[in-house]
# Entry
Amino acid sequence: MLKFKARGRVAGRAAAAGVVSAGVLLGLSALGAQADTKTVSYTCSPAATTATAVTHDFTVSLTENPRAAGTGTQYTATLTISAVTSSVFPAPVAIESGASIQLQPSVVATVLPATATAGVSTPSPTNSVTANVTAQGTMPPLPVATLTITPSAGATSVALTAKDFKINMYAPAGTGTVTTTPTLLYTCVIASSGTSTTPASATIAVTASASATPTPSPSATPSATPTPRGTRTVYETVTAKPATDKATTRQEQVPHTPAGGAATGGGGDAGPDARLFVLTGTALMLAAGGGGLVLRTRRRPARQ
# Structure
């Protein structure tokens, strides 16, 4: 009994561990389909023609956001690009406090099936600079971009891939520089060689929109009114068959009872009655019981 209980406990723990492992794997696969964070190497060229392009590592995170209720088939995704601390990303020029840093990312959408399409917005978010940054000092943080994705009818999934990006600067209003025209600081493209050249990506599973406007169905064509037809009555004469002679009927009956017992009308021809077997069995049981009593009486020792 103890061994049985121990085996039951071991089996229960193994089943629970299997369920937990399956849940973790499913959860990780679901998260992997909605978000991706990678370290990607970009070759960044300063706007100055005399400057040399330098390769820097960035942490790129592309995340699909849950679709808000009532937005139809419109989805959003968040793109975050930040320089890795170990790979210094310098400012090509001095940036004054009050200026704004603008990010212009490029995100490519691949739609399934191939006959469907998806429109992806081109965001240009900005961040305000709160402190002066000297030339060749550390670049201020880049703003977070929110993209809008609108798949066409029939699309089942949209795969987003973060590609190249540009960094611009808006000068502060007090410098007298025209602030409506940004100044290009960097043009960054994914490095052509190295170990970190795979871009970040995320897949959006497109679902049917409940708020989509239904396509009006064409009105049904009225069916033609059937033309009534005349009724035709057909008379048929049936002649009754003459009565069959009883002697002929008796001759046509089966002369032998088919095999199958009482179910086929066999009756006594099917074999001995079942009561005979019951009586025989009862007699054998009584005989065996009597013989056992006689043997027991003979083996009982005589009293003194």
Observations:
- The first strand starts at residue 35 and ends at 46.
